[in-house]
Amino acid sequence: MALMETSTTGGKKALHYPRLDTVLRVEKILKESDEPIAKNEIDRRLEKKIMRQTLNLILEYLEESNKVITLPEGVLWIYEDNISKGLKNKMNKARRVM
Length: 98
Description:
CATH topology: Arc Repressor Mutant, subunit A
Number of domains: 1
Number of strands: 4
Helix content: 40-55%
Strand content: 5-15%
Largest sheet: 2 strands, antiparallel
Structural class: alpha+beta
Shape: extended
Distance between the termini: 34 Å
């Protein structure tokens, strides 16, 4: 998903894509928060500052992938790993077939 800019002809063109490390840093901040967190607070907690459009694009992606929900109070991480411990153990013990 790219940042979009509307052209005079009504079409859209990409400005740039967020880097994976930026998406992962935003995810980490949201995962570590126990309560909804405002966009300004996310921006303050990032080591490197990012453009607001980039943050909005990342949050839009996370919401579309059902990892976060946007509330009036802020953004809240809702994704849980659904793989049980038993299944993880079996996967670790399984043989790789090529």
